[in-house]
Structures are given as C-alpha cells and as structure tokens.
Amino acid sequence: QVQLVESGGGSVPAGGSLTLSCVVSSDFYSRACVYWFRQAPEKGREGVARINTVTGTPIYGDWVKGRFTISRDNAKNKVSLQLSSLKPEDTAMYYCAAADLCWEFSSLERIDHWGQGTQVTVSS
C-alpha cells in the first residue's frame, strides 16, 4: 500500500516562506511522478508542481511564475515544495499525490495516491 505523508504547513504573513515535505512509502517512490496540488475553499483542485523521481525533471503550473520550487531527495523518499513570497491568495490545503507516470495536472483521474493534505494560511 502506498502512503504519502505531508508536513510543513502553517501560518505565515504575506511575503513569508514555507517548505512542505512529502514522504512516499514503499518502492513506489523510485518509479513515480510526485505532485503537489492545492485546493482553496470553494475552489477546484489546482496543480502546483510535479517531479519525476527518476530524472528530477520539474514541471510547474502556469501560474506559479517562479515563486515555488519542487525538489526531491531520493535517499529519503521525499519530495519538497518550497513556497516563497507567499500571498494571501496562496491560502489553501496543499496535497501531495503520486502516480506511475507524469500525467498532466488536469488528469486527476489518473493519479492514484493522495496524502491527507497540509494547510497553508497566509495573512495579509
């Protein structure tokens, strides 16, 4: 069974930074694409970034514009998302997810494994 455990959420003022982490259990990590999505109240789930754990190739949502950085630590089965220059509109639940291939962010039905989420709150 594949498990994803997120950590690192919290409350910060606008302009602040946070680093989210996702640890992926089992051998699945070694051949996975790991995603970060977010969902604000009354909004749909939005793709933030994804990374191929084999090649390390990162892909970001079109709206990210350099404020967020995804990285991996294969020795720890961990994918991190560094959030910087945070804005109140970044307030959301952030979810880690994993799939066997790197599907487009819109292909939610193809992403099989999800974490419970970690809350990020940015105050103005």
Key features?
seven-stranded mixed beta sheet, globular, 48% strand, single chain, four-stranded antiparallel beta sheet, mainly beta, 11 strands, 124 residues
Tell me what the structure shows.
The chain has 124 residues and is mainly β. The protein is built from no helices and 11 strands. It has strands spanning 4-7, 10-13, 18-24, 33-39, 46-52, 58-60, 68-73, 78-83, 92-99, 113-114, 118-123. Strands 2, 4, 5, 6, 9, 10 and 11 form a 7-stranded mixed β-sheet that branches. It has a 4-stranded antiparallel β-sheet with strand order 1-3-8-7, with no helix packed on it. A hairpin with a 6-residue loop joins β4 (33-39) and β5.
Summarize the structure.
The chain is globular, with a radius of gyration of 13 Å.
Number of strands: 11
What is the percentage of strand-forming residues?
A: over 45%
Tally of DSSP helical segments:
0
Note the overall shape.
globular
SSE layout and pairing:
Elements: E1 4-7, E2 10-13, E3 18-24, E4 33-39, E5 46-52, E6 58-60, E7 68-73, E8 78-83, E9 92-99, E10 113-114, E11 118-123
Parallel strand pairs: 2-11
Antiparallel strand pairs: 1-3, 3-8, 4-5, 4-9, 5-6, 7-8, 9-10, 9-11
